[in-house]
Batch of 2 targets.
Target 1
Amino acid sequence: MSVLVTGAGGYIGTVLVPLLLEKGHQVIALDRFFFGRDNLQRAIDGHQVEIIRDDIRWFDPNILEGVDAVIDLAALSNDPAGELDEVKTREINHQARAKIAKLAKERGVKRYILPSSCSIYGFRDPDEAIDETYAPNPLTAYARANLAAENDSLPLANDKFTVVALRQSTVYGLSPRMRFDLAINGMVMGFFRGGKIPILRDGTQWRPFVHVKDTSRALIAALEADSKLVNGQIFNVGANDDNVMIFELAERAAKAIGVPFKYEWYGLPDHRSYRVTFDKISNTLGFKTSVSIEEGAQEIYKALVDKVVDPDDMRTITVKWYKHLMYMQDFLKETEVNGVIL
Ligand SMILES: NC(=O)c1ccc[n+]([C@@H]2O[C@H](COP(=O)([O-])OP(=O)(O)OC[C@H]3O[C@@H](n4cnc5c(N)ncnc54)[C@H](O)[C@@H]3O)[C@@H](O)[C@H]2O)c1
């Protein structure tokens, strides 16, 4: 298939794209490349990918001609990024993605996959493990935008246009565009830097986790599945056993990397907490995760110790980087003369 991947230069995109190529799909990568083009270039390692640097709000719809499927990853990608600018979060994560889904249908694209998030469940009683039929309870601008994108894209499904929404767990693991603003990755980095695992207060909140390779495999499963099984459907992506309370997660991460369990608290109490079931994706698509939380923590720690990942790369903390870009834009405007700095 010819697959348009938006946000292809991101944390998930740079793992997904090589997997798509391995499976024989052609990839068109559309991204602003806020985190640089180098991550995707390294990921594709000389393989043929059409790269388009553009914004999903304003891109030329002609690029959808001849495309078979869209995997629409581009977004301001977590809750804090959403709080950075609520209006832009809505424009990008909701309106632009809804527009892509609509344009894709008009241009004869056969499948649209929306990588959504389990964060739309917000807060649920920890005694109940929730499935896709539970009423969402989005608590942040990011979660509300994901839900609105689901609500606008899923009704477009018909017998010629397959639409699937995947509610991904919190992702972890190594990626060419590394993110240390995700729970497991950040815990390992915190220990690497300061000898203590940072834990977001109050530690009793539940979250499901999925490795970046596994969530990419789930996106490919949704791409390749018989339309009858997935059309108009929502799937949670993860594994039942990988719902973990945050304090326990920190203990497990320390044990996995073989270090003493020392920790420090940060942040205000987190009101998001949800335990999720993944029976639907397992029963419908036979999807099973392949990487454990322990293996994920170990690969990140090893990459830091072996200097494969630069712990000082500012781009790995998403919101900090977006803020830095905006600051630098103003700064450059102030300093450049005749279009040059020096
Ligand atoms: N990583 C997770 O834990 C997680 C969990 C659930 C859902 N998701 C969702 O998966 C998707 C990808 O997440 P990620 O972790 O790879 O994030 P990421 O921030 O690493 O990647 C997002 C990519 O989108 C691009 N982008 C952002 N705005 C754009 C715009 N207006 N036009 C074009 N490109 C734009 C960025 O340059 C970046 O390369 C997002 O939709 C995110 O909400 C991620």
Target 2
Amino acid sequence: MKPFQQLREHLIDLFFPPRCVGCTRAGFAFCPTCAQAVDPVAEPICAHCGHPQSAPTDLCSTCRSGERDSLALVRAATLYTDPLRPAIRALKYSGQPELAPLLARYLIAVAQQPPWLEILAHIDGVIPVPLHAQRLAERGFNQSALLAGPFAERMGLPLTENWLHRERQTRSQVGLNGAERRQNVAGAFRADPLVAGKRLLLIDDVFTTGTTLTECAQALRMAGCAAVYGLALATPAPLPVSALALSPGDSAERDFGDA
Ligand SMILES: [Zn+2]
Ligand SMILES: [Zn+2]
């Protein structure tokens, strides 16, 4: 950052101190108390996609169906609950990209635990889930790339953003059910031939039904990629059994966005 820019930001902070997106406390974008209160993903989880489960199980129903076979393993770092939820929404929709390095810390923390240390030792590149060029121009940044940057740097891995492109503009996944989400992103991604034989790690912000990560992995695998792993910042908390009985399907996940 240039000295003038730094001075300008310092003066803005002095007169308009940032407010924590979780609790509105002045002086922080995301205060230490809220950072501590973020929910980790706890067992039981699906052994393949890491989705929290209401009861112990080996694989969730989606992974059992083979739908996510293009992905070697997926994990989410945290639960998509408060105070993380407003932080992710602020990062994506309110133009607060300064939150990204603070949130990337959760990805870094997970990556230092098994089985990630062993997996990351053989990863050739870190790829943030890409946005279409038009949406990137509208938003000004790709939130997954903002998370993947500090993560890759801290883990000493190359950031290989140009190895995957979103060829087709897809509508937001918010409000779509599982089948609609699959249809929405089908064939939307194109991988660079450079990925052939490589082992790659995809980074996403929220892992909901996993359709976006799966489509990315399929495009990479079709281009000859040896293995694709996924790491997301957050995933929805499991629904209580009573809620499952009331709302069949994944309609309760419709609040969660994508891209
Ligand atoms: Zn706070
Ligand atoms: Zn699963």
